[in-house]
Amino acid sequence: MAVEEAKQYIIIKLGDDPYGIKIKYIESIIVMQKITRVPKAQSYFKGVINLRGEVVPVMSLRLKLGLKEAEDTSSTRIIILRPEEQGSLVGIIVDEVKEVISLANADIEKLGYDNKNDKAAYSGGIGKYGDELINILNITSMADQDKQNR
Q1: What DSSP letter does each residue of 74-85 carry, written as one string?
Q2: Under 8 Å CB-to-CB from 86, ≥6 apart: which residues?
Q3: Does the pLDDT value for residue 117 go beyond 80?
Q4: CA atoms of 86 and 81, how far apart (whole Å)
Q5: Model confidence pLDDT, tens digit, residues 8-24
Q6: pLDDT class for 150, splitting at 50, 70, 90?
Q7: SS3 content of the chain, % helix, strand, coil (to 5)
Q8: Structural element, H or E, at residue 142
Q9: Distance CA 47, CA 69 (A)
C-alpha cells in the first residue's frame, strides 16, 4: 500500500479561530504596510500594495469570510497568494501567522454544504491536528468567486 503524502499548511489565526492555507499557494508573508485604497471596490477589498514593483490587490480575509473587522496589531500580516500557477498575485490580511503543519488527506474531513452559500465554498474541509480543529481554506474557490465579482 502506498504511503499517503501529507501536504503542508500554514496555520493562520482570525481572532481565536485557526485556519489552514496550503503552502503551495503562498508566495510570501509580509508585515502590514500602507495599502492604497481603490474607489468603488468590494467592502472586503482593502486596496493595492506595491510588492517588488508589482501591484497586488489586498483583501481582508475577515471581511471576505463575513467576520467583524479587527484592529491591526504587531502580529497582523499580509499573505501573498498565487491561487493559480500562472495567475496573478493577491494579498490577504490575517490577524496572525502561527506555524506550518503537515496534514494527510485522512486528517481532513470534507463537509457537506449548501452550494448556494458562497462562504461555505471557501472551506476545503476541517483538518484535525492534535486536539485542534482547523478550517482549511479553499483558496482557488475564493479567488474564482472574487474574479466573478469584479
Answers
A1: TT-EEEEE-SST
A2: none
A3: no
A4: 12
A5: 999 999 999 999 999 99
A6: very low
A7: 15, 45, 40
A8: helix 139-149
A9: 15
